[in-house]
């Protein structure tokens, strides 16, 4: 008996909650045929069936929602810095910024409250919204630096720049800092060994880029065997002890 009463109580509560759910649908219509007018203080004339034919003007369920203006409370990677006023899509603004407490709705009070002070502008930690994301991508990368197997060479910044371009990254030579030790070749004992270089981004951020030497020959008979997914294979450091890094990717 008690179980049946509990079941009915839960069912009634669920029904009441279901009735309270708000349906956010709205259709804007207009009459296809205007109804007849009537004189003042007289009974309105009856409408015919054609007066109940409507044309759809707008369906708000399929209309693209307007962007939301928000003010960032702190630096958000890939979005902006503290005090930036942004116009974003509602779904992204709600789920990624407003609910986690990283932003507030745009008002005069919020703009004044979260505006960056002069001291904060001087001590800026990020040069752009995407700088930290670029640092993370470079530090997860294992860059193959392809060098000639038949002719002598010394690794210069332009070698790393060319290898980065092949991997999809555009970088100036001035932003690349190589190790102090000179790397010369060809030397097959250095094949697939690692060394690190520093990439400077906007003269503010720095990223430690892991590089691996690979010898290449124009003569097909002199080429080394191809290694698939070389970045997943552990490699020895070229100088001293290897530095700890996160999970690598090509």
Automatic annotation (TrEMBL):
Q: Which Pfam families match?
A: Ribosomal_L9_N
**InterPro entries documented for this protein:** Ribosomal_bL9, Ribosomal_bL9/RNase_H1_N, Ribosomal_bL9_N, Ribosomal_bL9_N_sf
Chain ranges of the Ribosomal protein L9 domain: 69-114
Keyword annotations of the record: Ribonucleoprotein, Ribosomal protein
Any one Gene Ontology MF annotation carried by this entry is:
structural constituent of ribosome
A Gene Ontology biological process noted in the UniProt record is: translation
What GO terms fall under cellular component here? ribonucleoprotein complex; ribosome
Kindly provide the name given to this protein in its UniProt entry. Answer: Large ribosomal subunit protein bL9m
* Organism expressing this protein natively: Glossina morsitans morsitans
């Amino acid at each position: 008996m008690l179980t049946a009463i509990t079941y009915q109580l839960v069912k009634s509560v669920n029904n009441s909650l279901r009735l309270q759910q708000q349906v956010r649908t709205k259709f804007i219509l207009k009459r296809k045929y205007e109804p007849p007018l009537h004189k003042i203080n007289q009974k309105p004339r009856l409408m015919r069936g054609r007066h109940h034919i409507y044309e759809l003007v707008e369906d708000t369920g399929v209309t693209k929602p307007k962007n939301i203006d928000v003010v960032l409370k702190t630096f958000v990677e890939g979005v902006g810095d503290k005090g930036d006023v942004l116009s974003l899509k509602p779904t992204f603004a709600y789920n990624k910024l407003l609910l986690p407490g990283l932003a507030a709705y745009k008002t005069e009070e919020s703009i004044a409250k979260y505006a960056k002070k002069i001291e904060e502008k001087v001590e800026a930690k990020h040069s752009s919204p995407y700088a930290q994301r670029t640092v993370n991508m470079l530090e997860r990368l294992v860059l193959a630096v392809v060098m000639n197997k038949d002719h002598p060479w010394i690794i210069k910044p332009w070698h790393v720049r060319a290898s980065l371009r092949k991997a999809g990254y555009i970088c100036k030579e001035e932003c690349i800092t190589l190790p102090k030790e000179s790397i010369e070749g060809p030397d097959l004992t250095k094949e697939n060994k690692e060394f690190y270089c520093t990439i400077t981004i906007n003269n503010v951020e720095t990223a430690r880029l892991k590089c691996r030497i690979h010898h290449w020959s124009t003569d097909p008979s002199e080429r080394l065997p191809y290694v698939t997914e070389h970045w997943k294979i552990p490699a020895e450091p070229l100088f001293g002890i290897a530095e700890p890094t996160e999970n690598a990717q090509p």
